[in-house]
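Tokens as discussed.
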């Protein structure tokens, strides 16, 4: 029985594992820097019913922030391109998340999820894009992300 989700339209077959590795990276960063320990849910059932972890922290890998100058904030998804409907995801998912951590090993933003939702409704509702056939996002410039973030880490910086 296959336990990993299948993403037939993903850029690389390693996307799922890269996301899991980033979650581990963030778990260590939060514990080391803030003394904040995460208890991740591993089963699909618990993730769907409750969220990514018991503490309510959504974690998203965004590999190209420094390259593009933008944080790509997710608002909807679907598991395959041929599916017609979209499901709320990212900042719009109705789960236990109250913190939203997004970034990569060079830069990490910690946002209040409600603040991102307010920014989305106020400034980005008409700027949603579909960078892939399975995801809807909006782009927030790094300067704005730094301004509204609760905390920004640059683990790779000297």
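Sequence:
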């Amino acid at each position: 029985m296959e336990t990993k989700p299948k993403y037939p339209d993903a850029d690389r077959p390693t996307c799922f594992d890269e996301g899991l590795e980033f979650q581990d990276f963030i778990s260590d960063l939060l514990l080391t820097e803030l003394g904040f320990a995460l208890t991740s849910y591993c089963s699909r059932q618990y993730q769907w019913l409750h969220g990514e972890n018991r503490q309510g922290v959504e974690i998203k890998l965004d590999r190209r922030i420094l390259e593009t100058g933008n944080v790509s904030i997710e608002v909807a998804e679907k598991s395959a391109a041929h599916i017609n409907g979209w499901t709320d995801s990212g900042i719009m998912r109705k789960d236990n998340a109250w913190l939203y951590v997004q970034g990569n090993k060079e830069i990490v933003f910690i946002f209040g999820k409600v603040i991102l939702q307010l920014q989305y409704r106020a400034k980005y509702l008409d700027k949603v894009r579909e960078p892939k056939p399975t995801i809807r996002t909006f782009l927030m410039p790094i300067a704005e992300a730094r301004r509204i973030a609760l905390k920004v880490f640059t683990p790779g910086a000297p």
